[in-house]
């Protein structure tokens, strides 16, 4: 199964979508890292600031020894807890003094935060002996537990809060006590992902929409040009020049195609006139010669001369037929191919030739009736000439209609199968060369198949004999 689109429009649109998604993924990673770094810097700065402010407050009025809790203000008031995006803990919890380290069993120290906070405090002139930074659940901190016990309002607020708690302990040089700062860590902003998705969707709609209209302006005339070239290549029938449209580059391409088509059409017309004249000029003396040999008294000589004239005439007819294939502008007719094959078989049966038509499914296709009969007739004649019998079948294989002719003759060497499709190429002696024609039968059949957009396939059968198939796409 094909995954990638075949058309230029589809491939460019797919490439744009992939590039946009990759760019947005890179942008999302960079934005997420930048947001994380800003968040960590803000938390470290808040902890450092809390330690500095707490020390200055102690220097002015002494440390807070008891836990004093101010109840939350009513909803809608200034600084109300319920309306604040980040929980602001009471001052008596935000900064405390302790005679022991704030580490508890099971806590894991955050080395990166400790380094950042140490550097910030040292820049403010503090002599830092040790810094401890840990992040734990709000409910696991002993001061938060005391706050819940003493304030029902805070108990409800903290129970529903999705925050974690950042605890930072500072011990300065020459001291044994610890200054401890506690800051509620808000959850990560989940709106960033939605913003990026919305941004990607808007960019995708704008860029893809604009590019789609631009590409359609380019690919539409290209598709028309490709179809016109295909029709001209298969039929060679003259058509009106294609109207130039699209960008200047595409217009110049269409103008060049129109000029080339006119030139090729003129050459094909000249070729047809020349071949017609050659055929007329040759057939006239051949007919006169055919009359004159009637005066030859030797019957054997007269018969040989008449056969030679007939061979020349037949070869000339085949050459003219080969030149005319594809030059007709007649519209293909929807034909049931089984009936077409049956009518050809009747011609050979009337002459007493051993041909058979296998029964198969009904297959209908638009074809040039006269030419397809000619191609099938040539294949049957070829089989009768070299094998003495022919078996014809009409079947459908996938999206192709197949006219198959089998024989039980000697076949063709594999290395010569391709050469046998060229004009004036006949089989070797093992295929009864003496009774061979001019070597144009298979060439004509191939031209007929290609006229219908198909192909002629020759293959030796495993059981012996040659299989020839005219394959026409449906």
TrEMBL record:
Domain Histidine kinase residue range list: 277-474
Q: Where in the cell is it found?
A: Cell membrane
Pfam families linked to this entry: HAMP, HATPase_c
Q: What is the lineage of its organism?
A: Bacteria, Pseudomonadati, Pseudomonadota, Alphaproteobacteria, Sphingomonadales
Occurrences of domain HAMP (ranges): 216-269
Q: Got a GO cellular component term for this one?
A: plasma membrane
From start to end residue, where is composition biased (Basic and acidic residues)?
Answer: 60-69
> Reaction(s) catalyzed by this protein?
ATP + protein L-histidine = ADP + protein N-phospho-L-histidine
**MF terms in GO:** ATP binding; phosphorelay sensor kinase activity
Q: Which UniProt keywords apply?
A: ATP-binding, Cell membrane, Kinase, Membrane, Nucleotide-binding, Phosphoprotein, Transferase, Transmembrane, Transmembrane helix
**SUPFAM superfamilies on file:** ATPase domain of HSP90 chaperone/DNA topoisomerase II/histidine kinase, Homodimeric domain of signal transducing histidine kinase
Q: If you read the UniProt record, what top EC class would you report for this enzyme, in one word?
A: transferase
What membrane topology does the UniProt entry give? Multi-pass membrane protein
Q: What is this protein called?
A: histidine kinase
Residues covered by region (Disordered): 60-81
Give TM segment ranges.
196-215
- CDD domains the UniProt entry points to: HisKA (cd00082)
State its Enzyme Commission number(s): 2.7.13.3
